Queue: 2 jobs
Job 1
Amino acid sequence: MIAVLLALAVLPAVTGAFDQPFLLDLALRVMILACAAVSLNLILGFGGMISFGHAAYIGIGAYAVGIPAYYSEYSGYIQLPIAIAAGALFALVTGFICLRTKGVYFIMITLAFAQMAYFAFVSIEEYGGDDGLVIDQRSEFPGIINMEANLEFYYVVLAFLLGALFLVYRIVNARFGMVVQGAKGNEARMQSLGFDTFRYRLACYVIAGAMAAAAGWLMGNYNYFFSPEMMGWTRSGELIFMVVLGGAGSLFGPVLGAIVFILLEEMLSGATIYWPLILGAILVAVVLFARGGIEGVIAALERKK
Amino acid sequence: MEWILFVSQVLNGLQLGILLFLLAAGLTLVFGIMDFVNLAHGSLYMMGAYFCVTLTPLLDSFPLAVLAAIILTFVLGVVVELVVARHLYQRDHLDQVLATFGLILFFNGAVHLIWGAEGNPIRLPDFLDGRVTLFTDIEIPAFRLAIIAIGLAVAVGLVWLVGNTRMGMLIRAGASNRRMAGALGVDIKKLFTLVFALGAALAGLAGMMIAPITEANIGMGDDILIVAFVVIIIGGIGSVRGAFIAALLIGMIDVMGRSYLDDFMKLFMNNQSAETASPALSAMAIYILMAGILYFRPRGLFPPKNR
């Protein structure tokens, strides 16, 4: 896994040498979605909270670039905190209701809230509605970094990915993360140990929401454009797929999952316009036959040896 | 004029509610009995519409095509159950969500391959294409009336089936305690296949009813599926009656919100902000309703007993 991260770090030099900007573009997309997948993994993999509405946070983060930019406010010092605060606030409000429910109800109510956010952005004509919002320029951090330069933006994204991984690593190994994981395993037991598991889970949910909104902030900057379609529920499904494909509850799993998913999508959509047919079949096969995702399969192979 | 508009909006709400019920009925049974989250239910709705697209010119009759397409979606439901769904009942919901999400992609790709990317219209026969006059001064399309009539008939039939027949008794037994029903000698596997296929046929029927109005499109089931989920969660998972009431409620709220919310909001805020806020609010209305209901009744309005 370290090798993958190192490869991502030296990739710009390689693509620069061989003049393959397309690869750099692909890597950017992978890393941004990996950020979101890593944050989803925190609640889904470690916390057992299957959120089917994670794409909403990407949308919230992206509109936190787009809407200020619409009013000619380009400062990253304003946009990024807005993205994170809005993501956290949305997670706090919806999480307060969602976390009262369990199992399938939780999946469905997170989905419903994400749809709510989706339709809200669709129906606000001022910010483009259905057609989406064009973002003239990337967030400005005057004097520190020039996000318009693709290379510098690349390292910003990489830094966010590393930061997200480090944050999740610290959280799951801290007392706080232990409580959240304990609540996944046996909530009643954690409660009888005296932990107010609702609060712990809510806090975890809010952290994940803020992280995903930061990923959305990157996404808006990356695309110079955002439309509600990019926060639709199928995107949430793809994020879950990345997490499960990589191996839910493993630190690097979601990064692997994002890499495999994007490469798969890229290859299949290059090969045939009917690629969803094949991708769908692969997805069904992965669930039916490869339990535990890539990490799980690797672990199973190692056990066999 | 005012009340003519109002009555036709009520009928629109009723029609949306009926369609939602057709979708939600199968979903709630599959969900309630097998504890299986089937995201691909919307794909069966789409497939029903496309079967009808092909069969209508072939059989040269829309009603015959609908009957044949219902049988085809039933068969498709059996196939999907045997090949994929059956293996997922024992898995957790996450696996079910993922695999059926894969099925959605699969079906969307398959439709693209077979029928192409364009929307496909269905031509209605003349006797359904006209308009019907109600109460001397209200004109509505005959087909919308037909949708409402067919939907109500199916709803009554389904409530009768579940409430008064031997099969319905088994379904209810399965919904309230699957393992006990199995232990008492019910062939649970066969029952599951049957219920899944029945749900598929109902979803397909809903697709056939909507396709002449909107055309059959790739992904047409993706968004309405979520609304159908909202319906079954509000109604209480596993309850056909609950699904019926919730479907009509959601249909009415959605249609009425879109047509009257801005007038209503103008009563206590200025015109401009009412016009900006009301589309967003009416689009969100059903989700807010669901959140509110789940907050007070975490298992929906009519949860099945004995669970």
Job 2
Amino acid sequence: MPQHDSGKPHRPDSVAKRMKSSRRRRDNFFSDLIVDWSRSMITIINRDYVYEKVNKTFCINHNLNAEMIVGKMIGEVWGNDNFNKNIKSNIDRCFTGRVVFYQAFFETPAWGKRYYEVVLRPVTDEKETVTHVMAETYDITEIKLKEQAASEVEWEFRNLESNLPIGFFRCDNEGVMLHVNKAFLKIIGAKNENEVNGRSLREFYKDPLSFDQHLQKLKNEGVASFGRLEMKALDGTYIVCRINVFTVRDGSGNPVYNDGAMEDLTREADLEKRLIQAHKLDTIGMLAGGIAHDFNTILTTIYGYAEMSLETLEKSSENYNNICKIIQATGRARALTNQILTFSRHAEQERIKVRISDIITETISSVKPGLPPGIDVISEIRTPDLYVMADPTQLFRVFINLARNAIQAMEDRGGRLTIMLDTKLSDNSGRLPEGKYAMIRFEDTGPGMDEKTADRIFEPFFTAGKPGKGTGLGLSVVYGIISEIDGDITVSSRVDEGTVIELLLPASGSVAEETPQMAPRAEIMVIPASDSEARLIADALSSSGYHVTVSDPSGKWIPKAALADVIIVIDNSPAVRATDILFSLANNGVDSPVLMISDFDVWLAAEKELTSGLLKSNLFKPVSLKEIIYSIDNLINKTS
Amino acid sequence: MAGVMVVEDDPSLREMLREALEKRRYTVITASDGREALAKFRPSVIDLVITDLLMPEEDGLMVIMKIKEIKPSTKLIAISGGGKAGPGSYLLIAHKLGADHVFSKPFLPSELVQKVKEILG
């Protein structure tokens, strides 16, 4: 630092000169002081890249004396690498007379990693020749690090904003959208921001009136949170969202805009709704199942006394007829309790490997003959070799039920029912465990139904059809059977657009499993071949280890029937009457025991009229495979 | 004539079965639950037991097992209200425990009487 000269002797004769010289010295001193203590490091470099002068700040920053720097080449101080890479070219440019500005990162063993901002100014002599370069260097390491950290934070935030499944949005004070992120676009079903920006959030509310209330709340309180909000995506579908929003204000507290986050809760809400529905159906099932169980006891008593009364009465008497009607009504009550028990999953199912495409084929051939004009039923089998573990008779019952429902819905205006079969991998809705599923869709072009109806169609006794058409138990039975085999059933429908019922059943391997070893290898004949259910039962029995033959229409089956251990006759009157088959068997001298599967009324008639004695056992529709096998085994044990 | 025991907690069904069987000249003894049935069971008199499966005191499965112990030659018919929580699988278990036949309610009593006749020969 320059020394103060106040201690030196004064010469009185040249006061003016002395004062002038002193002023200059003082000016130089001040200049030196400014240069030395500037916050930037200042150096003078000559054409040989040698330091000719350095200020204090440079020395202090580098912890060196001026003598250790002056006279040295830049490369000696900063390292030749740094010199060649960052410094030389800039100095050369400055020697052409230009002011050069640059930022560079230097790493030296002594000072570590530093960022510098450098200004090089050409220094000229009287001939305007650049003789030196003045370098002014600022250490901007701290600023750079902060900048870098800030940009990393910003980058991370941007990353979060664009990748989180949370929709971020900014809207003005009236709710007009200014900016949204990708997730918001995805939730609302937009391709880009242009489809959203400039529109009011109000347009995405299912109920615009609640938007007005929400906006008012936000204006009053500055922050608001709305859970379980029903919103409307761009394509018109409803979604459930949660919105948290707050007002951003300027320095004087005036609202500038609102920032918000929107989460899509549709899936959770849907799952929750379905769980509540399933729970409700289970509760109804338990209640109804308990009642049906007790009811069956009461029905047995009614049967008993009615039968005993019949024995005492003349067939021609009025009371005989009345009691027959009591028995018939009891038969209907029995069918009802059977359905309730199936819905409440109290009915047991024998599960064997079932090829679904077969059931679809049988369903279609069973409904086709009676189709009203203008209605078409087609199948779309994408994976023919798809198997599930189920009772084929019960699955047939499900498919028939769904097909008939769809046909009935289309009765007035015609349409098409498509039964589609495909595989679906792990439904990730959370309703079913992960795995491979058989997906069966019943898609009709009927009148459809509204959401409230669709929500309730699996409830027993709920009917959307015309009064007097069915008991309203059909779909609840379907629900029971599907739940019992660990499947899932969903309905989606829109008024005037038709209904889609989708079944998901856990798929089994594609190769038929080994047949159960326990089943006796008995000879079974199933009649008639023209009946879909008969063919399914024949297949199921054959999978269960029986030797099964099906009658053929030619009549050549009668000799074979005589060899069967058990004959199963399925009544599908009026097309084929079981009683006719029974008479035909008796007339041809066949004496194998017969298991008849029919409606209750047919059985009543057969029991009273049959004299052949062939009818050894009977089951009432709808039957389960388990019941059939149990009855067959009973008949075989009895005769052996 | 052969002796039949009817074990059923529903009084009207119990009475109806008694009447139906007595008409066929069987000696009928009734009980309203499993405990009463075991108390009333006389091996020398009873050839066949018809038992409901779901009953308040000692269920039907217990009745089947105990009677098979007391007198293995006793014939057994199980009846139940159809279903699983009470029924279906109970009927299957009953069958495996040695019931000669099972009936799912509601059944026609004439079928039951016919079965009794077959079993008792």
